[in-house]
Amino acid sequence: MSKQLAIPFALDATGKVASVEHPDRQLSQRVRAVVAVAPTERVMQPEFGTDLRAFLFAANDAITRDAIRRTVQTSASRWEPKAVVKSIEPIVKDEEQGIADVFVDIGYSNTDPEATGDRFEDIVVRPGGGVDTY
């Protein structure tokens, strides 16, 4: 089983560089990085990421939610082709403040969707780059 650096970079309890061994967790953190990083934030790969900034001041309507879904789907399929995006759901948390979460359920493309069970994971991306996993 291969190891991958933990994203975001961190140290574990022993002071060593944190790593992830489980393939599902590796895929999850890579998809989180694709969704949370805006294009031009990575100097050596300026096209990497998903441009959710364009939706920060957009109207909360079906057209905007569909555009967010397409944008996330396009980025995920380009940068993580092994990931199967089960669903993408923008959810407005505070209508007055314009705060929304984008839930992304993912799984492996080489895994039977019925067999994945709890392998799908919610990724929440908040404006400004905050990312949570549930």
Question: What keywords describe this structure?
Answer:
134 residues; alpha+beta; four-stranded antiparallel beta sheet; two-stranded antiparallel ribbon; 3 helices
Helix and strand topology:
Elements: E1 4-5, E2 19-20, H1 23-36, H2 62-79, E3 83-94, E4 99-108, H3 113-116, E5 122-125, E6 131-133
Termini gap = 24 Å
Rg, Cα atoms, Å: 15 Å
Strand content: 15-25%
| Sequence of secondary-structure elements | EEHHEEHEE
Spatial ordering of strands, largest sheet: 3-4-5-6
**Helicity, as a percent range:** 25-40%
Q: Unreliable runs, pLDDT <50, ≥5 residues?
A: 115-120
How many strands?
A: 6
Q: How is the biggest beta sheet arranged?
A: 4 strands, antiparallel
Label the overall shape.
Answer: globular
Structural class: alpha+beta
**Arithmetic mean pLDDT:** 76
Count of helices? 3
What would your notes on this structure say?
By secondary structure, the protein is of the alpha+beta class. The chain is built from 3 helices and 6 strands. The protein has helices at 23-36, 62-79, 113-116; strands at residues 4-5, 19-20, 83-94, 99-108, 122-125, 131-133. The protein has a 4-stranded antiparallel β-sheet with strand order 3-4-5-6, with helices on one face. It starts with a strand and ends with a strand.
